[in-house]
Amino acid sequence: MDKSKRRFIKGAAVTGGVGLFAAGYSHTLTQIGKGVVNGTSGKPTHDPLHGNSLTPEYKVDLKTGQLISNDEQRVVNTMCLGCWTKCGVRARIDQKTDKIIRISGNPYHPLSAREHIDFDTPIKAAFVGLSAFQEQGLQGRSTACARGNAMLEQLDSPHRVTQCLKRVGKRGSGQWQSISFEQLLNETVEGGDLFGEGHVEGLRAIRDVSTPLDANNPEYGPKANQLLVSNASDEGRDALIKRFTFNSFGTRNFANHGAYCGFTYRAGAGALLDDLKKYAHLKPDWDNSEFLLFIGTSPQQSGNPFKRQARQLANARVNNTNFSYVVVSPMLPNTSNQPCAGNNTWLPIRPATDSALAMGMLRWIIEQQRYAVNFLTAPNVEAAKAAGYRGFSNASYLIVSDPTLPRFGQYLFASDLGLPFEGKAYGEQDSPLVIDEASGAVTLASMSQKAKLAVIHSVDTPKGIIAVKSSFQLLSDAALGFSMAEYAKECDISEAKIIDLADKFTSHGTKAAVISHGGTMSANGFYSAWAIMMLNAMIGNINLKGGALASGGSFPAFGKGPRYNLQEFDGMLEPKGVFLSRSKFPYEKTSEYRRKVEAGQSPYPSKEPWYPISSPLLGEHLTAAVHGYPYTLKAWINHMGNPVYGQAGLGEAIGEQLKDPKVLPLFISIDSFINETSALSDYIVPDTLTYESWGWTSAWQGTMTKVVTGRWPIVEPRVAKTATGDVVCMESFLSQVAIKLALPGFGEDAITAADGSLHPLTRAADYSLYGAANVAYLGTAVADINAEDMYLSGVSRIQAELNTRLKPEEVKKVSYLFARGGRFENMRNARDEAGNPSKVWPKPMMLWNPEVGSRRNSLTGEFMSGCPRLYQPALADGTPLDKAFDKSQWPLLISSYKSHTMSSMSIGSDRLRQVHPNNPVRLNEKTAARFGISTGDTVKISTPNGSVIALVECVAGVQADCIAIEHGYGHKELGARDTVIDDISIAANPLIRVGINMNDLNLFDPSRNGRYPLVDWASGASARQGLPAKIEKIA
Amino acid sequence: MDKSKRQFLGKMASVSVGAALIPVVQVYAQDNPQSGNAGSSSQTYNASEGQVGKRYGMVIDLRRCVGCQACTVACTIENQPPLGQFRTTVQQYEVSQQDEASSPAFLMLPRLCNHCENPPCIPVCPTGATFQRKDGIVVVNNEWCVGCGYCVHACPYDARFINHDTNTADKCTFCAHRLDVGLLPACVETCVGEARVIGDLNDPNSQISQLLAANSSDIKVLKPDANTAPRVFYIGMSSAFEDRISGQAPVRTLLTDTGEEIHHGH
């Protein structure tokens, strides 16, 4: 059936497509590209008919299935790092040149294959399974995305850092000298007058774990906290960085890119799932759902795991019965699929108003009683199971609702009533209470089969009468706090459409789910994400076939381990004190608060906001250090992080201060490229790429089985060597710093094996090799590698390295892992016999979260809402953005979206960039007409603290108030400008500069004291959606 | 489907295990445009004749295409055309409906050489450099091609181009160099949505034949009126797209955020 026959195409605009350069432009590109990639050279082709196409990696006989290898190439399974999905890939390498010539997917890996092959499949069978023999490869394909295909160009990029660099002239000058690893180590550890600008304290002087850094505020912790270590994210080597940072050096200050990635979503999901430590989230059961709702995420375009979920959604469109989905976004996303129109719809929404839509849906669902009553009234997992569910909620739990009581917002506990309980009052074993449906009595949540849902009650306790409400009642109050009309007006979606969406969502039992992600990175993001995710609780879909699924888990490499204890060591420190970003620590416990109270002053506002429910926030770490509140930094070691490019407004807010050695005395970057952040550093330690380094990491989410991805040097690293012949990279730098400072946890006897023997941690590979042995022996140990797998998998190359640290029996098993690119649980373990997921989320879905509802906004002193409610995007002091910035001057709202091709670090790839070389901003065609703007016009886009020049595409697929900007472009570094090393200039590639970076459209929070980029007031995550803006045509 | 795949693969593994490992030797002798090499092994096909008895074609299921461009990039790396020249592309169309109350939607349209049954590029070639193999794959002999560009103009699908480096006509070959050694084309191998399916149209049991049969009411080709008999088929394509594949051009000029023009579009 041709559904599209019913549709009449009014206009068709090509957006972001390719084939743009059939004439003219290609010549320019060719000139620039020559010598950069393995392109053709104007010579006759290698083969008359096959041109310059690559020689196949092997042959498979189409009649017999016999595999015939090509000894001029090796095919290896390892990890991609084109983005943070970290898929397993297979790479073809030319044996003579040691260059990676092509990359595709690892068939053993669940992020690359829809149904990954069994772990014990021989390598040869895996290869044949990818071939045309009996068409096996069509069903068995394991893919790489556009980026994954292209990232091989990084290996020999002229813009790579391969030597240790020390700045020449001022920070950010773009001029460097190459120095030895040993010189770099000595200078950074010992300090001195390193740049002729005066004395710089080295890491040795900074590392003091006993003297408080601020005697007036002892809770800030020791002086060692004045070292900040950041890692872009866990790409398989995070554990070593944390070991060095927390447990050896002893600084509290560590952070990754989460605060400017998707932390609002993680925090909102974590609030729902009672996990404000690791911020668990959920993914839909793509293969069995009937209705999916995506709000602020576009699973066929980006997100995590992008490639896997895109493939599963594509499959669901064709194979699921009665399947449909709606994607809510300010701009038409790639998740829209016109051939299946009718079964999928784009619902445009005003930027940063997702919470209005979600709260409107919640209001209707509650008023119309469309929620899963038997799920919500089950106060424990057994009761829920009896009602047919595989998880439970705290909907019926009683919450102290009198704001004058000290325990406002917390559960009413058994100990409050003098009922029997275990352990400490209000401890983990003290029981929350419900009102039992049958008896009407206040009952332990664990003892009731069915509890009352809507409760407003006064409980007589030995401590007096305590007013309580149920979680459900509090959520209901919040949802009913605004009318449907108000919600509709806020988000620019009609009441009828909100109701229709809520109706659809609640019409499929538990075979529906809603997810979100970076679309909620707005100044009300945490509560938006929580409101969106709360919809899942209304239908009780958790842990159920067709519903919302927990992570499949991992085989952890770096824990206490069956072979080597990588988590504990003699003399290990526990970091102490307050994070620079004022995270995970309530303001009310500070000396500042105490002093104000003692002086009879109002303790509010704090000097700057505190973020009691948040993880460490890299952006707020840095603004804190620059402004000196709560304290300053003396040194920053940054591994791969790029907050100056990645966080909205950060570069403009503090870029100049970061260049000032008086503000930040020592700045060391560890990276394989010079990005917008490492460009400002004093030293750069060259780092190994994913193709050159060792590591163990897992999937973020979205797999139903255990995954651990192993990466290993599949080619000879291009970086310099130390005097002892080790590879210069992150591991060798941190290890040698620790050894030079005689820190615990590194050196000759740093690692304890299961048999009690001691082992060295001195070389770059060591930690990851011990981790590999742990992975191999977890549970049932994996098999030993056989000769055929060894021959076909390319791991024979690394045998010498494995033998340096591992026992012979370990080497055979670790080789088996590397041959397969990790360790993966078999697909058949994903589900039980009924098709439900084997891995379940064990904790309750939190309609009210006491950890949130008992905390205050440290500026206003008001309690944070313990359940989702409508908050407008606002400044830190609560002033709504549309009050702070007059609509008549700032009529539009910026909204950004992830690129389907370009990540923040992929612009240097010519073969990728040629497909999608620019990011013209998209504007609604009617809005554009109002401003006299047409497609192709040059415009100036401004926010209150920044402006850029851009080209415009005027289309129907953008909400009327929105300026839509794609991420990944507008680079100032990564090869965008000339770099001088030892007086030799590495010429810039101007194509890397093309386009705009949304994060240059700055908005500083005027309610704060200094230049702070706008963040979500509740979580401290970067606000990049819904920034007020204007647009003017200039050509 | 999933379980049978695993079982199937298990079975195949037992067939292959123990087979000798023989290095590939690739030699292509060339006397005239259609004399490819005759390989020593039974599975090495004559590059000019192709796989006699087969008729290769491709189905692209637009319901599955996610627009990720993995195929585009994989193709350019596998086949190494100059930067900016493509053997396959995926264009992305924003489709609005007449009914303004409905939201627009995206169509992702992968395109490549259609390996037509009646290819208009072949008769115009003055040297015979471009020809069709017996398995239907249309190829160009780079040693015979003089780069006149007649074939480029004759192709109604813009599937050919003059390679700026070799100055010869260049186009998709369905990755014949891979098909001939039992492997899948780069674009098919890396297709994230599993939208691209290549196979033997002469074999009624092939996946492509089965897909065509199962979706027979929803199979379209581009420019059906051009009488080229294309062998790239689309599932889920609106008939409005059959002849309307150019659309409104996207922005091609390259500008930096300060307004500096890096390249002016065409």
TrEMBL record, chain A:
Pfam families: Molybdopterin, Molydop_binding
Domain of life: Bacteria
Annotated InterPro entries: Asp_de-COase-like_dom_sf, MopB_CT_Tetrathionate, MoPterin_dinucl-bd_dom, Mopterin_OxRdtase, Mopterin_OxRdtase_4Fe-4S_dom, Prok_Mopterin_Oxidored, Tetrathionate-R_A_N
The entry's keywords: 4Fe-4S, Iron, Iron-sulfur, Metal-binding, Molybdenum, Oxidoreductase, Signal
Ranges where the 4Fe-4S Mo/W bis-MGD-type domain occurs: 73-159
Protein family per UniProt: Belongs to the prokaryotic molybdopterin-containing oxidoreductase family.
PANTHER family from the UniProt entry: TETRATHIONATE REDUCTASE SUBUNIT A, TRIMETHYLAMINE-N-OXIDE REDUCTASE
Protein name as catalogued: Tetrathionate reductase subunit A
Organism: Shewanella glacialipiscicola
From TrEMBL, chain B:
Coiled coil: none
NCBIfam families: DsrO
SUPFAM superfamilies: 4Fe-4S ferredoxins
Alphabetically ordered keywords of this record: 4Fe-4S, Iron, Iron-sulfur, Metal-binding
Name recorded for this polypeptide: Tetrathionate reductase subunit B
UniProt KW Cell membrane keyword: no
Organism name: Shewanella glacialipiscicola
InterPro entries xrefs: 4Fe4S_Fe-S-bd, 4Fe4S_Fe_S_CS, DsrO-like, ET_IronSulfur_Cluster-Binding
Span of domain 4Fe-4S ferredoxin-type: 56-86, 104-135, 136-165
Highest taxon of the lineage: Bacteria
Classification via CDD domains: PsrB
One Pfam family hit: Fer4_11
Keyword match Iron: yes
